[in-house]
Each structure stands twice: as structure tokens, then as C-alpha cells.
Amino acid sequence: MLSRAKPAVGAAAPQGDKQKKGKKVPQLDELLAQRDFTGAIALLEFKRQAGEQEEEEADLWVGYCAFHLGDYKRALEEYEALTKQPGCNPDVWVNLACTYFFLGMYTQAEQSALKAPKCPLQNRLLFHLAHKFSDEKKLMSFHQNLQDITEDQLSLASIHYMRSHYQEAIDIYKRILLDNREYLALNVYVALCYYKLDYYDVSQDVLAVYLQQVPDSTIALNLKACNHFRLYNGKAAEAELKSLMDNASSSFEFAKELIKHNLVVFRGGEGALQVLPPLVDVIPEARLNLVIYYLRQDDVQEAYNLIKDLEPATPQEYILKGVVNAALGQEVGSRDHLKIAQQFFQLVGGSASECDTVPGRQCMASCFFLLRQFDDVLIYLNSVKSYFYNDDTFNFNYAQAKAATGNFSEGEEVFLLIQNEKIKNDYVYLSWLARCYIMNKKPRLAWELYLKMENSGASFSLLQLIANDCYKMGQFYYSAQAFDVLERQDPNPEYWEGKRGACVGIFQMILAGREPKETLRKVLHLLRSTGNPQLQPQREPPRPEPPPRQGTRQEPPPPHEAPAPRRTVRLELVLKDPTEESCVEFSYPELLLCGDPRRKSAHSEDPFNDEQRERHEVEMLAKKFEAKYGGKSHKHRKDRLQDLIDIGYGYDETDPFIDNSEAYDELVPASLTTKYGGFYINTGTLQFRQASDSEDEDFVEDKKHRSPKVSGDNFSFF
User: Fold this and answer.
1) What is each CA distance from 118 to 38, 64, 83, 124, 152, in whole angstroms?
2) Where is the Hpc2-related domain (predicted)?
3) How far is CA 537 from CA 402, 492, 493, 529, in A?
4) Residue 509: pLDDT above 60?
5) Between these two residues, 526 and 701, which has the higher pLDDT value?
6) Rounded to an integer, what distance in angstroms lies between the CA atom of residue 678 and that of residue 715?
7) To 10 degrees, what angle do helices 493-511 and 457-472 make?
8) Which of 45, 54, 162, 435 is deepest in the core (most CB within 10 A)?
9) CA 471, CA 489: separation in Å to the nearest integer?
């Protein structure tokens, strides 16, 4: 409209003459006061071409207006042209340095600033350049040159903000506002600090003071949209930006890249690859948001390549770098990356400025999660749970921590709150949910999880988990089913052993009445359908017969002789209660000899020889009474060698039932016997008593010595 040469409507000339007489050309000071830099540039160019203003002065003002309009390239052209003129004003160098600074050309900015005369503006610029170069020594040097003036204090507050010292920046802004209520723009800076401190409601309240006076401010409306994004959602934030773009003022060009960047964030990453890459290192958050986009697309390696060379300076950068290292470490199995992630999380969560914030507590939970200290994980997650009730990612980590500490009931409930299909199809989710089902005595639901999966390595791993966990929990039917499928896919002997043990467990459950009898048919079907060779009868393969020789007659095979039937013997024994002095003894060979009906008596020729038979019976009774009530020996009983030899001699020491360890071996003297008269399995301390006289034995070489009876403390058999 300002470039029009004639009115849009050509009628009513007299009225137009009155309008022309009533108009006057705006002055530069008026346009600058209204911050109409576009109009100011148009006026300056008109005067420069008309020769109404000196060219050097016009160039300086054009550069100034272009700089404040955000057209730094135009300002750069004007200032560079001025520096090439003879007799250039030295102040041009500091203006050129400021232009270089806003274009990100920090080396050229420093070189130009050093050519300018010393002044407060030069010191402030070098102060910011020292921060950009991370030169702490120069930073402190220029900090000492700052004065107690508004411009220098605002510059100091800006450095505090960029170094994440938000509270210090707020204190400076509030102090200046107390003395200068007309500096309304400072409310935007205060609101921005509160936004960084996660006080979004407070930020909105402070920002409203400025928006009442300047409702079309791009920076203020953008900050309001960011607050809506944090407080509500991306759609609410996008609506604020839409009103900004619809009612764009002349200053809209200043923040067009910032608006494009934020629209990508509000739309959940839509158009990220078109907008964000050119803005990396132009807008500080662009690199971080592009890394987040790659993480959401599961492109962990690309995210790592983008952030690996970044030296973190803010908590957000430390957190994001920790997340990327944790994701990459889990993906490639690198303990080094997991260690780096754990250190970054601990650094943020343990800092004084972040320890009581929600991100700080999440960082400590992540640190302990990587250290597998899940009790500590729950302490921090419980403190922020109210902020993430419907957050699937939070619930996923929270449920894992619950299950890892043995609280499978609550873990199952939280797992079932998750709605994200990507998480629900992840093997970690499926395996933990299956374990929760099994531990909560719901093995059927765990088996249904497997049935819904496609055949893959993950399904095989889930089968192994179901088979082993169900076996451990006594849910043998589903364990047998899982081992059966595993055995079919991989003929590993361990799967057959697990299947066999699970089937035995099912039989025991049926006998105990804890499993329906109908399950037995299913188990038998599982066993019959197996291809394990242990269930097939082993037969010797037939050997081929040699071919018959020519001219010879083949002999018929000998008749197959049936094996002789095995002889059985029925013995009837009378058992009497043992006493302290005797017990009933039987000789198995003698019983066989006496009970053999096929053996004839030595005196069978004379069946009426009663004298011989009676004498034989008397001899047998005498031997029996002698063994039972034998007379007391007057000789001192000596220890025999066979009484002092190793107790376990002659036993199979490889048998796990036999414990012949040196720690419990005892050499039992002949004068002692066990306290309770039993034998022992080698446990506990042995207790002895003096052997009675009736237990004395004759020292006959042809009679075998009975081992002394020993009784232990824990396991005794009588």
C-alpha cells in the first residue's frame, strides 16, 4: 500500500484534493517509534534516491532498520559497503560485528568487534562471544567490565538464561521492572524463564500482561503456543500459531523459521525431515527435536550420529544423549553405551537444580533401571506417577519395575493399561506380561499370548519362558504343551526331559485331585505323538545272512529254544519284636535250602529214622539259643581291624545317595554301638553307648561280622 502511485478509485477529484492537502509524509522518527522498520526503509531509500539525505547517513539507518527487522543479510551488505568507504565511521565495525553474531559467524564477529573502539556495546558483544566459544577466562574478564546500567544488566541476564541459570535471570528482570514499569517486553523474558522451569501456568499469567498491550507480538504468541502445548496438546498449540499467521504483522518475517520449527513439534514430527535439517545449529532445539524424531522412527543409529559430537550443556541435552546411548546400548548389546547413559542420567538426577523436578526424578529412575535396582526405581516413579497416568511409555517402565520386584499382580494391571500397539507387540512387553500371568496362576492367558504370535525367534523365546516358568509354578499341563512344541521345533534332549517331568507332574496332580482326570488323555496324546527315540523299543537290527555256497546244501536253521522259566520261591517268616539284646535274624541261603521241595533229605532212605531228625532239631535249637543267649566272655574285647576300616568301604561312592565325605566319617570301636541301634545316612553327630555283653560275638573266621548300627540326628531308619 505504501508503494502505490495513485489511488485505487479515480473519481471524486475535489475530495481527493482535500485528502492530499490533509496528508503529510511520515518522518523517520515516527516510523522508528512505531517500530515500522519496513516503512522506515522505504522512506530512507526514497530520500536516498531523491538526494534529500546524505548517502552515508541513509546507509547507516537502512542497516539499522534491516537489522531490527531481522533481515541480517541486508544489514550485512549495508555495513560491509560502509567499511569499504574511505573515512568510515569506526562505530560501523561494532554494528557489523553484531550482524555477524546474529548470522552465527562468530569468528568474523570477534574480528570486527576488535576493530571497533571500546564501548559498552563492544564489551557486551565480546561477553557473548566468550560464552559461544566456551572461554571461561575471557567470560569472567568481560563480566567484570559490565556496569550497573540497564543494557549491561540485560546482557548479564541473557547469559544466565543461556547457561540455564533461570532463577538468576528472573531476579535481574524483576529488579529492572521495579524501576521501569514501561519496559513491558521484560515480561516476555520472565515468562520464558518460567517456561524453562516448567511453571507453565505462571508463564501464561506473566505473558498475558504483555499481550494485552502488544497482541500481535510474534515472540509472545509463540511462547503462548508453547505453553498450550505443555499444558494441553499439540492441536491447542497449533491453533494459537494459526491465529498468529492469519493476523501476521510486518514483524512476522523475523520468526518465520521459529514458527516452522514449532509447527513440526506441535504436529508430532510431521514434515520433520523437510524443515528441521536446515535449522540444525540455527535454532538450538532443532538438533534435539530431529534426534527425537529419529528415535520415534526407531532409527537409533541415525539419532546417535546426530548427537554423538554434541557437548551437552543443558539438562535437556544430557537427558537426550543419555536416552540415545541407552537405546543404542540395548539394540547392539553394548555395555559401554549403557554405562554412559547411566552416568548422564545420574548427573542430571543428582544435580541441585533438577533433583526435585519431574525430569530429574525420571532420570534417577532410569539410572537405577539400568543398574537393575528396581526397588529404587519404584521410589522415584511412584513420586511422579500422578503426572503420567495415561502415558504408555511410563506405564511400560513402571510395570516392568513392579514385576521385577515380584509384585506381579500390580504389574499385570499396569501392563494391561497400555494401549500403544507398538509397545504391545514388543517382545519385552509380551514376555513380562506372560510371566505375570503365570505367576498370578493364569497360565492359559500366557499360552494364548503365544498362540497369537507369528512363528519367529521371539515366539520360540516366549515358549521357553512359558515352559520353564509354568514348570516352576507347578502348572505342568501348559509346561508340557510348551515343551512339546519346543521339542518338535528343536530335538534337544533337554526339552524331552522337561516334557517328561511335566507329564509326571500332571500325573501327581491328578492323583492328588488337583487336576481333572480328562487331562490324562491329553497328556497321553502328547507322549504318543513324540518322536523321541527313548519311547521306541530298542531292537537289534537283523544281520544279513551270508549267501550259500554253490554246490552245497543250505542247512535249515536250528529250532529256537525257549528260555527256561524262572523259578520262584515262597517263604513264610515269623517276625518278633526286637529287644535291646537280640533281634530276629534269617539266613537267606538256609531258607532257600530248607524250603526247596525238590531237594531230598540226607536221610530220605529211612523215613522212620526219628532219632536222626530229633538230633538235628536239637542241634538247630542249640545254635539258635547260643546265638541269642550266649554266655559272657571273660576275655577283654579287642578292636578288630574290620571294625576300624572305612565305613563306606565297598559302596559305590559315585552314587549320590552315598555320602562318604571325610567331614562325617567315623571309626566305631568294637566296644561301642549306636545309641538307638539303627544305621545312618552320614548326617549329624553320632551318639554312642557301651555295647552289651549279649552283643559279643565269637571270633570265628568263617562267620561274617555284622556292621555296627549307627543312627544320625536327622534321618533314621529302623
Assistant:
1) 31, 20, 17, 11, 14
2) 637-687
3) 50, 20, 18, 15
4) yes
5) 526
6) 10
7) 40
8) 435
9) 19
Average pLDDT over residues 121-144: 94
What is the β-pairing status of strands 716-717 and 672-674?
unpaired
What confidence score (pLDDT) does residue 581 get? 72
Tell me the C-alpha distance between 529 and 484, whole Å.
9
Q: Looking up cell 559302596, which residue turns up?
A: 651
**Conformational region of residue 615, where left means phi above 0, alpha means psi within -120 to 50, and beta covers everything else:** alpha
H/E stretch holding 335 reads helix 335-349
First to last CA, the chain: 117
Average per-residue pLDDT for the chain:
80
Is residue 597 pLDDT above 70, yes or no?
no
Report the pLDDT value the prediction gives residue 69, as an integer from 0 to 100.
85
User: 218, 246 in Cβ contact below 8 A?
Assistant: no
**Alpha-helical regions (H) of 267-314:** 272-279, 284-296, 300-307
Strands (E), 360-431: none
Average pLDDT, integer, range 487-491: 88
Lowest-pLDDT range, 25-29, 119-123, 544-548?
544-548
User: What is the rounded distance in angstroms from the CA atom of residue 197 to the CA atom of residue 360?
Assistant: 12
Question: Does the 28-217 domain belong in CATH 1.25.40.10?
Answer: yes
Q: What is the enclosing helix (H) or strand (E) of 679?
A: strand 679-680
The distance of Cα 503 from the centroid of its chain, to the nearest Å, equals 35
Question: How far is Cα 264 from Cα 273, in angstroms, rounded to an integer?
Answer: 10
Residue type, 594: C
Per-domain boundaries in the chain = 28-217, 658-718
Strand partners, 672: 690
At 421, list the grid cell.
500397539
Instruction: Measure Cα distances from 462 to 408, 426, 434, 518 in Å.
Output: 17, 12, 8, 27
Cα 531 from Cα 528, distance rounded (Å):
8
Pull the grid cell for residue 463: 515358549
528 CB-side CA count, 13 A? 6
